[in-house]
Write a structure and sequence with these properties.
Chain lengths: ~425, ~300
């Protein structure tokens, strides 16, 4: 691939050209030159006046359904949705069938050609079948390329098992990701416990289920790291899908104490509150559930002050048969890959630079992926976007359509991605 | 006659005060009808109604069926046991199949909160909620309000205590909405594990002492306690429940005031109510059942006008 990109604004806090409009010459999958008024004969030229470019975006939490539930999402469709959402690298949760708990499933994903312009990073399960009982062969899976360890949709309930997982992963400097949820407190829960769950007669998922488990997980981490000889400059525990104000406060205090942790929030948490579920819309049924306005404001504050490191889609594809049902029979989840950027622009209250940081620099650092910057000689792993564009989300590339945003007017549009020596451009 | 503001009866939450008064006033007329030698009117002669019950019910289904027949509607009954639901058919498919046979109205009981709301946005027929899980049971609340009004007159300022398992009760929530819209004061009373944490935000009093609740109220609406159907334990035993939350005749007599005792049925005799209380002069439990038919006639009649 040889390509000359003209007049694109660089969004990269580390680059001396940050905020400047530049031309970028790409050759053999690398940035060959950055400058003004570059020209070159007989190569493809793309004028991107008005658009921005940043390092390719990373989504740390994507539910793929391949293998096992390919009718909901396969590796091709999840990659297409990711690329259209601007993501050149995605972390796939292990909740497939079979679960990613052995090398064969891990390699099936890693060796798939489906990704194309998108690099697929499978995370491996902590426990077999992600059932929370028996350990997977984590050293082996780590060496086979598992980017992180997590039981994905399931929070690890056993304190002993979580403690041992932290200890076992330490010599590898491998990342553990866990969603804090005390399963007994959230048992049969359908939505946030509050006045709306009371009005709709639904069993609630109390904020306490997150707060308690988060406190426990951090205690276990602290205990595991006492007298540890291993380096903790990288996060050891990544907390997935924070949803409560107290949760944000717990993470903030733990970080101030110096615990090696990181955390993320699903972008849709910034859009909806529990009161939006008053009409039983199953497309708004997610876990953790949409909570109160105060929780949402605390999440925004947490993003702004750096308590929350990353923004994720928590892409969770469900077919119509799993969603067009009575509320308590419907599955949890929203397909989010294609709308992360727009929703962040519209609802996060963050500057463009900070949004980009939360989906590039931060997740790469947490995942121990090499830093990507826009400079001469760097790998061409880039996302092109227009933060001002108004557009209608008319077509989803995911196999599942369980998103409340389909057909909606959004702001901020991805225009193209370059990665793995491939390029894609969107209207 | 005045019209309702809604096409479906999904819950009391969706009705305004005027709707409720209209239903209760219409029910008064229908109560006259069912006490005549010829208990029938031709109002819904050209209407077909399906009673679709995905959960067991004797009283409510019978009450609806009688209401429909006394309005001269054609009636079909569907219940989940032995039906296609067990073969994995979706709710929407089941109901659309029934509607394909030219049915105009669906009366549905379902275990999922919001199931009638889900249906109402997807089918052309009128939907009447005959109880959706732990959410609402609007016709029960309407017949309860009708029965209270019959006994006490205007409910403005009257004090109603709802006693028992509030968390799992669709009757409680519908009663709260209905009574508040009619200007009554509501208290809920029961073990603290059986009262939703956020219920107080609806402006109801919360109590845990049955004696105090009885002293406070004009009407005690006692709910059924079911230990066996709860997947999560909320209290230790029926014995302890009946000892500390059960109501007997002595307690009512000791009050030295008029009190109205209600229960939506079926009663667990000896658990939430002793037999002597249930059968006492305080009780209007069988009047509630009688009024249920008149209230349901009113609901069906008014919805058919929409």
């Amino acid at each position: 691939m040889k390509l000359l990109i003209k007049s694109v604004r660089i969004v990269d806090k580390k680059s001396p050209a940050n905020g400047q409009v530049r031309d970028i010459l790409i050759e053999d999958g690398k940035i060959k030159e950055i400058g003004e008024n570059l020209s070159s004969n007989d190569i493809e030229v793309k004028d991107l006046s008005g658009l921005c470019v940043s390092a390719g975006w990373v989504d740390m939490r994507v539910g793929s359904r391949d293998p096992g539930f390919e009718h909901k999402e396969d590796l091709y469709s999840v990659s297409a949705a990711a690329a259209h959402g601007g993501f050149t690298e995605i972390v796939l949760l292990p909740n497939t069938n079979p679960v990613v708990h052995s090398k064969d499933t891990l390699n099936y994903i890693r060796q798939s050609a489906a990704g194309g312009v998108v690099t697929l990073h499978p995370a491996a399960a902590v426990t077999k079948k992600a059932e929370g009982v028996d350990f997977t062969e984590m050293i082996d899976l780590h060496h086979a390329g598992a980017i992180a360890f997590t039981d994905g949709e399931h929070a690890v309930q056993s304190a002993d098992l979580l403690l041992k997982t932290i200890l076992y992963l330490r010599p590898l400097n491998a990342l553990l990701m866990n969603r804090p949820e005390e399963a007994q407190l959230s048992l049969y829960g359908q939505m946030h416990e509050g006045i709306t769950s009371t009005l709709t007669g639904m069993k609630g998922i109390p904020s306490l289920a997150e707060e308690m488990m988060l406190t426990r997980d951090l205690k276990l981490l602290e205990y595991a790291l006492e007298k540890s000889m291993y380096d903790t400059s990288d996060p050891v525990l990544h907390i997935s899908l924070l949803s409560t104000a107290i949760g944000v406060e717990i993470v903030r205090e733990a970080k101030q104490k110096g615990l090696p942790i990181s955390c993320d929030v699903a972008v849709h948490q910034l859009v909806f509150e529990d009161s939006d579920l008053i009409n039983f819309d199953t497309n708004l049924k997610v876990n953790p559930p949409f909570r109160s306005q105060a929780d949402q404001e605390a999440l925004r504050q947490g993003l702004a002050d750096g308590t929350i490191d990353a923004i994720v889609s928590d892409h969770n594809p469900q077919d119509e048969e799993s969603k067009n049902l009575e509320f308590d029979h419907a599955d949890f989840g929203i397909t989010g890959l294609e709308t992360v950027f727009s929703l962040a622009v519209m609802h996060s209250g963050l500057s463009l630079e900070t949004i980009v940081e939360k989906i590039t620099t931060a997740p790469r650092a947490i995942l121990r992926l090499p830093e990507i910057s826009i400079e001469q000689g760097a790998i061409a792993n880039l996302t092109f976007f227009d933060p001002e564009a108004d557009w209608t989300f008319g077509k989803s590339y995911s196999k599942s359509k369980n998103t409340p945003f389909l057909g909606q007017q959004l702001k901020g549009k991805v225009r193209g991605v370059i990665n793995n020596g491939k390029q894609e451009w969107y209207a | 006659m005045t019209k309702l503001s809604v096409r479906h009866l999904l819950g009391i939450k969706n009705l305004n005060e005027n709707d409720i008064q209209t239903i209760l006033d219409t029910a008064t007329e229908f109560k006259d009808v069912i006490n005549r030698p010829i208990k029938k009117v031709p109002s819904l002669r050209d209407i077909t109604i399906a009673n679709v019950f995905f959960e067991n019910s004797t009283r409510t289904r019978l009450s609806f069926e009688l209401a429909e027949k006394r309005l001269s509607a054609d009636v079909v009954n569907f219940s989940a046991s032995g039906s296609s639901v067990k073969k994995g058919e979706t709710l929407l498919d089941t109901v659309n199949n029934i509607l394909a046979m030219k049915v105009d109205m669906i009366v549905m009981r379902h275990s999922s909160p919001g199931a009638p709301h889900y249906l109402s946005t997807r089918i052309p027929a009128n939907v009447v909620n005959a109880g959706d899980g732990t959410h609402e049971h609007p016709t029960q609340a309407l017949l309860d309000a009708f029965s209270m009004r019959e006994k006490l007159g205007d409910l403005q300022g009257k004090k109603i205590a709802i006693i028992g398992d509030i968390t799992h009760s669709r009757v409680a929530l519908s009663n709260i909405f209905c009574l508040q819209k009619l200007g009554a004061e509501v208290m809920v009373c029961g073990p603290s594990t059986l009262i939703p944490k956020h219920l107080g935000e609806l402006g109801v009093k919360i109590g845990h002492n049955v004696k105090e609740a009885l002293e406070w109220c004009d009407v005690a609406n006692v709910l059924r306690i079911q230990l066996e159907r709860q997947q999560i334990k909320y209290f230790p035993s029926l014995r302890e429940y009946s000892l500390y939350f059960g109501i007997n005749k002595q307690m009512l007599d000791d009050l030295n005031k008029e009190i109205v005792l209600m229960h939506p049925g079926p009663i667990n005799r000896g658990v939430e109510l002793s037999s002597d209380a249930a059968d006492s002069h305080h009780s209007i439990i069988l009047n509630q059942v009688e009024n249920g038919v008149a209230v349901r006639m009113a609901v069906l009649y008014l919805l058919a006008q929409q």
